[in-house]
Amino acid sequence: MPAIETLDLTKDYSAGFIRKRPLRALDGVNLRVNTGEVFGLLGPNGAGKSTTLKLLLRLIFPSAGTARVLGRELDDVAMHARLGYLPENPYFYDHLTAREFLNYAGELFRLPCAERRRRVDQLLVRLGLEASADLPLRKFSKGMVQRLGIAQALVNDPELIFLDEPMSGLDPLGRREVRDLILQLKAEGKTVFFSTHILSDAEVLCDRVAILNRGKLQGCGELREILSLGVSATEVVLENPPAGLLEEVRKLTRPAVKTGDRVRIEIPEEADVAPVLEAILRRGGKVVSVSPVKISLEDYFLEQVRMGPEKPPAEQGVARVDKEGER
Predict the structure, then answer these.
(1) Among 7, 36, 43, 128, which is 20 to 30 Å from 216 by CA?
(2) pLDDT tens column, 241-287
(3) How many Å separate Cα 185 from the centre of its chain?
(4) What is residue 208's DSSP assignment?
(5) pLDDT tens across 75-85, in order?
(6) How far is it, in rounded angstroms, from Cα 28 to Cα 52?
(7) Is 139 strand, coil or helix?
(8) Pairwise CA distance, residues 15 & 24, whole Å
(9) Where are the alpha helices (DSSP H) in the chain?
(10) pLDDT digits (tens, 9 = 90+) for 280-313
């Protein structure tokens, strides 16, 4: 059973003051998130990522389409006890301490007192907040509030965790700790569905990703398949290239990039590498390395966003999806 299924999920808002007009934030999105995977929802600001999460959590209601979470309809309130959620910009009662707030969150889930205290102490350590556990939240930095938000999303030991921009406001150490935490949650058999525009985090964490742009699904697939689509160029690094060499090979390469004594040139996928290497060796150039430049998640993301939402994903030639979001 999939953890999340959406069918033509659509959300319209009203825009304007006097003459209101519909504004489509999400347009017929079909997704399937498998149980036990880390799934990344990627897209530029305003693409519809937060709207998607709020619809799945029933914080807002769809204009059309439907969805199922953990095999249940969205209006099944009891199912929410099995979910955890971190909003994009969490704000908590700033007169409470971290320990008091997590105890309060545990009480909302009706956790027994002993289990609640054990769970709170465990989460404070897990998120690196034990030293600040008894400080009022008004004294917390943005990064500390973000960590507390992740802790409250886990207080009920949920099966499915929704994280909206979980790395926001974290320093490099904090980001690394949260990345490790997400991988630990996956190892425990939990499903993590998170939105982000930080592509390096998605590349490290996700089993599969989907890309939203202007409310439409632009592509969906497994990262290992997306990143093995092929070689986009061949990179050649030279050291102290002889005079005139770069001019000779200029028509076969992209503009050279010089860093110190070394020069990096890229030979496009469609060009022949052999003539360039022959010219370098003939002139006595010193080759440091020759390596393929493979497509990255950033390349894929930018390609899908540039294509725009006019074409359905199946026509775009990369990571085709069927109606259930499977390849």
Answers:
(1) 36
(2) 888 888 888 878 888 888 888 888 888 865 678 888 888 888 888 88
(3) 16
(4) E
(5) 898 899 999 99
(6) 11
(7) helix
(8) 10
(9) 49-56, 98-108, 113-126, 142-153, 172-187, 199-205, 223-226, 245-249, 273-282, 297-307
(10) 888 888 888 888 776 666 666 666 666 666 544 4
Of 126, 128, 166, 174, nearest to 149 (Cα)? Answer: 166
How do the domains of the chain map onto residue ranges?
Answer: 4-227+299-315, 231-294
* 35-81-144 Cα angle (round to 5): 90
Extract the tokens encoding 301: 């993301």
Can you give the pLDDT at residue 129? Answer: 92
pTM above 0.70, yes or no: yes
Token couple for 293 = 């430049």
CATH of domain 4-227+299-315: 3.40.50.300
Q: What are phi and psi for residue 84, nearest 5 degrees?
A: -125, 150
| CATH class of the domain comprising 231-294 | alpha beta
